[in-house]
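Give me the 3D structure for Methyltransferase domain-containing protein.
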Amino acid sequence: MARVLGQNPASAPGWLWLGVPGATPPDSERRRGLLLRRDEGGYAGDVRCALPLPIASESLGVVLVQHVLDDALPGDALLDECARVLDPSGVLWLAVLNPWSPYRARWLRSGLRAHDPGRWQRRLQRAGFAIDSLSLQWLGPRWRSAHGDVGVGAVDRLRAGVALTVSKRTLAAIPPAPLRGLRLQIGSTMSRGR
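Predicted structure for Methyltransferase domain-containing protein (194 residues):
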């Protein structure tokens, strides 16, 4: 979270953190952020609210969602809200459970659900995020420490969580020029060769 917030310049719009009870919010000296924890019927923290969020459209530079979508509750409305409140160059950081982790035994029968990154990519694309900008990072305790803290190696795929970082999709200011009609000229080339 600190890395994503660090990429948001001081002149950029504020940020939003959405977490579950027990999750640790980001430490940030810049207090231009809004901290909300999921609560019964909505969110509580700096403000008490439900969806839709009481935040102006395209007013935030970063939205951090920490395990809010790991239970059986439908999350498409929340992803749509994240896309709405992010400015055109905004970034969404989404932390979710890893379905391939041995840690899944800890949340088995707790109501939590882990989905593979491909499913998250499809959901993010439906919400309007630029999937070509998506990056994955595996989070949580390592099984072997020889690989360091990068969280992108083969052994890291057994970590407890996955962080997906994606940019908001924006429309080009200048539409691409249409291609001129191309003609296939196979017939004339073949007749000359004989």
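The beta strands are 14-19, 33-39, 42-45, 60-66, 86-97, 129-139, 161-168. Let me know if you want a second pass.
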